[in-house]
Amino acid sequence: MKIIETKIEGLFILEPQRFADDRGWFMESFNQQNFEHALHERGLNIPKFVQDNHSCSKKGVLRGLHYQLDPCAQGKLVRVVQGRAWDVAVDLRQDSATYGQWVGVELSATNHRQFWIPEGFAHGFLALEDDTHFLYKTTNYYSKAHERSLLWCDETLNIDWLSHGVDVDDLIISDKDRMAPSWA
Q: According to its UniProt record, which residues of this chain constitute the active site (predicted)?
């Protein structure tokens, strides 16, 4: 497994090793021991995953930016197993040097990348193809009472959603996400 550091400490991209031949391919999509080793090497906390989620979205569906408050904050290990998505994490850790900054990465069934998003981040994604299947491993259970959102198009955050082949007029956004509060 290859680890790609991002500009935000604790937030990184995983590239599993894939073995291909004339029959197809095989990859180990998750290995707890290797994941823990990668975190331990970086002095980061080792999470325990408790829930897996799976969503399917049409091209243009934008979900987020979502997070949960303590004591129900969630870390997420996310990947796309069919289609493509532009995935974004925003640093909400007030004591962080990168507070308010974001990182985006394309996840796809072709590149097999995974994105580790620890607790303390808002998360969202834009489906870039129809029938995009997005998988999440989470470190805490969903709690409606602790769920919060940030406005996806907040001018202060200035997230680059629209340079990935989806026009603003084609976005499909829930009312909850349209009405989310701004960063301010």
A: 66 (proton acceptor), 136 (proton donor)
pTM of the predicted protein model: 0.94
139 within domain boundaries: yes
C-alpha–C-alpha distance, residues 101 and 91, integer Å: 6
Residue 51 belongs to what domain range?
Answer: 2-17+24-178
Angle at 3 between CA 141 and CA 122, to 5 degrees: 35
Which amino acid does the sequence have at 162?
L
Backbone angles phi, psi at 29, to 5 degrees: -75, -25
Is 164 noted as a catalytic residue in this protein? Answer: no
- What's the half-sphere exposure (Cβ side, CA atoms, 13 Å) at 99? 7
Give 40-72 as a DSSP string. Answer: HHTTPPPP---EEEEEEE-TTEEEEEEEE-TTS
The closest alpha carbon to 150, from 121, 112, 126, belongs to 121
- Contact between residue 135 and residue 83 where contact means Cβ atoms under 8 Å apart: no
- Exactly one of 40, 123, 136, 142 is catalytic; name it: 136
Task: Convert the pLDDT of each residue in 115-140 to its tens digit.
Answer: 999 999 999 999 999 999 999 999 99
Q: State the catalytic residue, choosing from 54, 66, 141, 142.
A: 66
Nearest to 151 by CA among 141, 161, 143, 142: 161
Answer yes or no: is 107 within a domain: yes
In a domain? residue 184? no
